[in-house]
Amino acid sequence: MKKATIIAALLISSAATFAQTWTVDKAHSRLGFNVTHLSVAELGGTFNSIDAKITSSKPDFTDAVVELTADINSINTDNEQRDNHLKGADFFDAEKFPTLTFKSTSFKKVSDKKYKVSGNLTLKGVTKPVTLDVVLGGTTTNPMSKKPVVGFKITGTIKRSDFGVAAGMPAAMLSDEVKLNAGTEFVKE
Asked: 2 lies in a domain?
């Protein structure tokens, strides 16, 4: 029994040794969303201030843990009046809930470069499980920094009503479904 415990401890410690951390390259990453307004026009925006990291010990990222934080006050829809309304209590209530967070619970490969990432999204103080589609863009070495870089495209749909966002807004005015889309680059630390 003692021998099995020692072997298990060595395996766990060696897995931790090979874990690699990748940090989001903020200059080359974007976290966006789209909604339908009045059932006829799709409008979108971004969160301009994000922080994210991926920890993985496997080169194909199948054991990846993804952590993301976005500053609600950095919301940008190219309309200052709308941005201020979105930051207010009717929508995100940025004063009480200044961040959006996501932490993955699984990162599963479904085909060559396609993955499903599941995790907990916290928005406006509400945490719900979500699953998003991920496409691995590839890996390369940045010629300037000489560091390894990996790129991902992430898409998915959530319901704003699940998170209490714009609870009084009918879907005919603003779609309940919110499409998420992100293009990200991560740099290996």
From this structure: no
Minimal CA–CA distance to 159: which of 180, 141, 186? 180
Predicted confidence at residue 16, as pLDDT, reads 46
- CA-to-CA distance for 57 and 61, rounded, in angstroms? 7
On whether residue 51 sits in a domain, the answer given is yes
pLDDT at 140: 95
Q: What is the domain-level CATH number for residue 67?
A: 2.40.128.110
Is this prediction's pTM over 0.70? Answer: yes
Q: Which domain holds residue 30?
A: 19-188
pLDDT of 19 reads: 84
pLDDT of res. 168: 87
The residue ranking higher by pLDDT, 43 or 13, is: 43
Residue 48 lies in a domain: yes
Count how many domains the chain has: 1
Rounded mean pLDDT of 66-78?
A: 98
Sign of CA dihedral 105, 110, 112, 114: negative
Residue 11 lies in a domain: no
